[in-house]
User: Fold this.
Amino acid sequence: MASSSSSSIIVCALVGVGIFLGHIHGCVGADYGKALTKALLYYEAQRSGKLPHNQRVQWRGDSGLQDGKDVGVDLTGGYYDSGDNVKFGLPMAFTLTMLSWSVVEYKTQLWAKHEISNALNAIKWGTDYLVKAHPSPDVLYCEVGDGNSDHACWQRPEDMTTPRTAYRIDDQHPGSDLAAEAAAALAAASLLFDFGRNHQGLYQNSVPVAGQFYSSSGFQDELLWASAWLYRATNDETYLNYLGGSGTTGGTRTMFSWDDKYAGVQILAAKLVLDGKVPSSGLWADFKSQGEQFLCSCLQKGNSNVQRTPAGLLWFQPWNNLQYVTSAAFLATVYSDYLSSKHASIQCPSARVHPSDLISFAKSQVDYILGSNPSGMSYMVGFGSKYPTQPHHRGASIVSIKRDHTPVTCHGGFDLWFNRNGPNPNVLHGAVVGGPDPNDVYWDSRSNFKTAEPATVTPAPLIGVLARLA
Assistant:
């Protein structure tokens, strides 16, 4: 996927979600271009491995340089998942797929904002790692590091003393979900797709340690997701036939995430219908209808609408809610453009929804994230005048190794830095924290990992939305 490819807007209300001006504080000019720049910068702070000469996040240093040594494979590089120092394959691959989708759809806008190179570099840093993690047709390394031992320590990546065990899936230990997601991320890695299809099973059954932190609920969605992307990348009818002959569309979903890709599959399939590449009947019609019904629910015009906070933010679950908000906003944005190109709209259960409605909805969610909310707080670190100062993140919360070379020990990090009541010494620009609670309240404390921890999956779909809005 990597090879395939100003303005401030006044925000004083959350358009399209019925918010009263009196409920909103901190109405500001949301500079989507600046937010885009910061979101891409965040990925440089998450890099593992030998940092490049053009590294912009200067408080980071080289780390994880021995990754893969235990298995005789070079597994350096890639991204640390969130506030920890583990490289989890499934969310990393989904992050790369969403970054790639953002660039595929909005490369012109990214070019205009002078961010195309940074976007492509963010993708390449991850896909280079995925290629190394797939050293032979039936082997894919799915995790480096151990979540339990890593979470028991509070160390910057440059000081890690925890085991860097490499875990893999292979023909005897299948992982269709991970293999297919990696294939989607790489778009043309058909061997990965074949591996996932031919050796079916959930990856956490083969690598239980991974399932403790990122347990997959199923693999059929990843196989369909991969087939949709591989068809789009190659025009090989094999992948289209797999998608159309699967016998399942997933039904109407309640979220779109690293674990549940059905809504994304449905929107990609709906594009095929709109483009006239597949029939507008049968299974293809179901794909399209169900994808649209998910968007109807997000816009509060469906039969089973997504819960909202009093100020209008979509509320999916307590743990890192904003990752589900950004992915839903992306689907609304991209589908708005798909519909606009065909002069089409959606017939929701309670009203007809036009492309402009979808964009207004996406904008409302992004505006909330960037500061148009009751707290007047931007949930993107480093954006605006008020943002979280204590995100749950090891590297950001500990003084840079370039300022103090004294090693931070496993438990010493808790005493010196985690329990310190003050702003993190390093600003994690562009990170999006988990977000507020169902009542629009946010507690800025690094100990509150459910809502204060950022993750790579959260800004990835936001890249496309910000590029479109900027």
In short: Residues 1-28, 188-192 have pLDDT under 50 and may be disordered. The chain has one domain: 32-469.
